[in-house]
Amino acid sequence: MTQPDDLLHGPSPEEAPSPENGTQATALPQDLPPLPASETLTHLRTEQHLENGTGPLEVDYVFPSRLNAGNAEVMGHDPEPSAVLEGAAAGSSPVVPESPAVLDNAVAPDGPATSDAQAPLGGAGPTEVPATEGPGEGLSRAAELPGGPEAAATAQSALPDFPTFATGELEEETYTPTVAVQGPQAGEVVSGYQLNQDLGRGWFSANALGAGPSVDVYVRPRPLWAELRPHRLLPRVTPAGDLLVLAPTEGTPLTIPLDPDAARAHLTELARLLFALEKQGYAVIDLDPAGVQLTQGGLKLRLPPQVARQGEAVQPTLRDSFTPPEVQEGQPAQAKSGVYLLGALLFQWLTGRPLPAEGPSSTVLAGVNASGVPQLLSGMLAPLPQRLTPTQLLDTLKSAAVKLPVYQVAAATDIGLNPERPINEDSYGFVWRQTGQHGGGELILRAVVSDGMGGMAAGEVASQAAVRAFLGSVAPTLEAQVWDANAAVLTDMQGRDGGCTLTGVEIRGTRLQLGHVGDTRAYLAQGGAVQQLSKDHSYVAAMVASGQMTAEEAQVSPERNKVLRSLGSLRAVQDNYVQVLQEPLELSVGSRVLLVSDGVWGEVQPTVLHGILLHEPSLQRTVEHLLELSLESGAPDNATALVIERVK
User: Do residues 9 and 131 both lie within one domain?
Assistant: First the structure.
């Protein structure tokens, strides 16, 4: 029985099985006319095109099957399609013609000539090749064909590489660049600077020849940002020949994620820069997100932003997750592009990651867990027609930053220890009106301490009338509110002798104004120091002001309770009678305002009073402590204290 390996060696007619054995095999012609090497190569190239699909499609592939006596194939028989597919699935190799003669109408030694209808491409029927035969073996047999080794070598060079030929994979070939590198390169010397490292976008780290620290230099032709007016957020750049040398900022990059309040503060600074550049006619189209640094002087950019003149076409640029869509498309520059950049920067500051590739969807923005920020980002990252302008961005940030302050109030009063004062003639009160709305709302806090005039009839009636009228007045100024209180005293006293002193404050938001008549007092503790806001309208105060008495003498003078101004003593408004502040005072967080009657400040030493106001953590304990010290000193008068603290 003939084995498949025997076919590799070209069996002789004597060794070939006879028809009686039921097996026919293709007999290779022994004497073929010699062909030129060029013709052999042409046929082989034709076969190559057949294999890679660029040649004619009428080609039969015959997949090998093991030959045995019980299962033989007849020359010229067209195999079933299923048999062909099974052979392909088995990984069999396609037939490689051994010579151009194989494609001719070959005649087996013992068989008839095959007709054209039976042999596609005018050649013999499918030739069985064992699956173990590779292209190398076929080429070794091709070397035995007419034409000699030279023809075989030519044929081998025309065939594809075996792994590529067998698997259909393509080889990858890398070509060297054909465009010449432009601009200065690392290692070159430009204008006295050795370029060290290419930082991208025209920037290099460099050293001045001979000496000097490493600096960043810009090597491209003079950019537009070099024409910008100085701004405290922009770095300082100096020309040096063909270069622009960047002055070091000596700052540190921001550590993200940032606190929302800090992020809003930094965003406001950058929004002001956009606003300033817009007024100069420029739009920011690119900004290095890693170049925003915090210095001792505040926020600063390590590198200048890339700008374009508004309305002019921009060179399309791309910085992943940051570049505005209109800049990527090369549309005319608009100031809104800078707002998009800041929106992408704010998103990264708060989340610690850049915008996703799919863009700023509502779902993505809603995941930013900071009050008001998703809405702000929606306006900053919106499509160009709906996007905020720099001016609108600043207004939005200002509105969002307006938060009502938080105050605490404590008060106490005591009748004292004087047996001749059966009634507490002191009165105090405060009212707090607060409304909340978009943009901040409104807060108004009024507080007052009033001391009924000792020795006068119905002093408590006068002080109570003054407090009620002052707190309920709708007059626009503190001075007018005090005069409303004076009118109420006159009404309630009904012609009786009596009056009162009054010290009141009104706080609108964070600004304080004072209205004062008499010798009750107002103190302000702020920044670690205490100052007296009110001026005493008293006899001893006038003596001190004229130099006839010292402050220490006035503190213990028996005349210290004599007042020169009071409510209820005048019926007509008099200019400069009521003391007010020339300008309202700004109350910072932690500030305290203390209102007291003379029964407190007259018995407690100023240094002790100041220490309690500055260092006592509890407001209620502050007023109670002052009253206790007044009682310890004998408390010859009624004592009242009211304190206000801004806690947030």
Answer: yes
In a domain, 288, yes or no: yes
pLDDT single digits (tens) 415-450: 988 888 888 999 999 999 998 887 778 999 999 999
Q: Is the residue at 179 inside a domain?
A: no
Note whether 582 and 436 are same-domain residues.
Answer: yes
Three-state secondary structure call for residue 153: helix
**Residues in contact with 314: Cβ distance below 8 Å, sequence separation at least 6, in sequence order:** 285, 308, 327, 330, 331, 332, 333
Place of tokens 């005039």: 453
Residues 373 and 419 grouped into a single domain: no
Q: 81: cis peptide before it, omega within 30°?
A: no
Residue 6, Ramachandran bin (φ over 0: left; ψ between -120 and 50: alpha; else beta): alpha
CA distances from 458 to 302, 451, 498, 567 (A): 72, 12, 6, 13
Same domain, 343 and 379: yes
Domain count, the chain: 4
Q: Of 139, 114, 126, 135, whose CA–CA distance to 61 is shortest?
A: 126
- Residue 588 · residue 507 · CB < 8 Å: no
Q: What is the mean pLDDT of residues 239-253?
A: 90
Residues 6+ apart with CB under 8 A from 275: 390, 391, 394
CB atoms within 10 A of CB 279: 12
Which amino acid appears at position 631 of this protein? L
Mention every residue, 6+ apart, whose C-beta is less than 8 A from residue 615.
none
Nearest one of 148, 143, 164, 400 to 261, comparing CA atoms = 400
Same domain, 103 and 74: yes
Mean pLDDT, rounded, for 17-31:
45
In a domain, 173, yes or no: no
Has residue 12 got a pLDDT over 80? no
- CA-to-CA separations, 49 to 17, 44, 92, 449, in angstroms, rounded: 35, 9, 19, 107
With a CB cutoff of 8 Å and minimum separation 6, the contacts of 385 are: none
Look at residues 459, 458, 441 and name the one whose alpha carbon lies nearest to residue 450: 459
Predicted confidence (pLDDT) per residue in 62-113, tens digit: 444 444 444 444 344 444 444 333 444 444 444 444 444 333 444 444 444 4
The amino acid present at 237, given as its one-letter code, is V
Q: Is residue 281 part of a domain?
A: yes
Q: What CATH number is associated with residue 384?
A: 1.10.510.10
229 and 357 inside one domain: no
Residues 215 and 309 in one domain: no
Domain CATH number, residue 614: 3.60.40.10
Q: Decide the pairing of beta strands 306-309 and 298-301.
A: unpaired
Say if residue 61 is in the same domain as residue 148. yes
What domain range is 322 assigned to?
A: 253-401
